[in-house]
Amino acid sequence: MSRPVRRNRPYLPDVYVQEPKQKEDELSAETVKNGFTFKYIDLALEHDGFKGTDFKQSEDDILNLFRHILTKKDENNTINDLKKKFPLNTKDNFWPVMAARTQKRFETWMSALASTEPVNKLAKSVPTFLKKEDVFQHLFEHNVALLRAGWYIKMLALYYSSNNDSKQKKRHVPTDPCTEWTKAIIDILKDVFERLIKDNHSQTSISELNTPSAINLDSE
């Protein structure tokens, strides 16, 4: 819907009515002698907050101000986590996927993930895999939405990272789950790319066999 044009004054367009206390009506010695002369506004002093202050600063001062802003921003965005961190209980909320035992339970859970069921209910029992590559295959087969698939991958990353931390507590070796999941995604994409190339070659070979020239050569 188009909104009406806002008009501050009830005048016709391009019509400027005389106003009280306007500069043209001031009777000073200069205006009586020379008449009204329009004075151009100095662009440097156009803003009221300027008031003739010198804003010329060096590049180092500007960089220092910018660094000060960034440090203040980091301080305000940093949250001091003073709470005691408890280990994640993976036995109550996660269960491994077996071949025959948990197949039916896994299928119902994946169908619920593909539907619009709230994820807070699904988080109470999350299936896990031994291989990360199997996760993407099942997500593709059940046609899970992108956001819900990302949530499931985050839950699995939390599970794997908690297990790795408990195993490597004595070694004190930091683990980054992002690199492992990135490697798994790259392997899946390579496999999909190779499949697409094979399908493309097979389709081109079938189309070449069905061309009229190939049919004529076979008949001859």
Automatic annotation (TrEMBL):
Give the record's keywords alphabetically.
Nucleus, Transcription, Transcription regulation
Name where it mostly resides.
nucleus
Short name of any one Pfam family annotated for the protein? Med12
What molecular function terms (GO) are annotated for this protein? transcription coregulator activity
Please give the GO cellular component terms listed in this UniProt entry. mediator complex
In which compartments does the protein localize?
Answer: Nucleus
A Gene Ontology biological process term:
regulation of transcription by RNA polymerase II
- Domain Mediator complex subunit Med12 per the UniProt entry, residue ranges: 93-154
InterPro entries of this UniProt entry?
A: Mediator_Med12 (IPR019035)
Q: Can you tell me which residues the record assigns to a coiled coil?
A: none
Q: Which PANTHER family match?
A: MEDIATOR OF RNA POLYMERASE II TRANSCRIPTION SUBUNIT 12 (PTHR46567:SF1)
**Family indicated by similarity:** Belongs to the Mediator complex subunit 12 family.
Protein name, entry field: Mediator complex subunit Med12 domain-containing protein
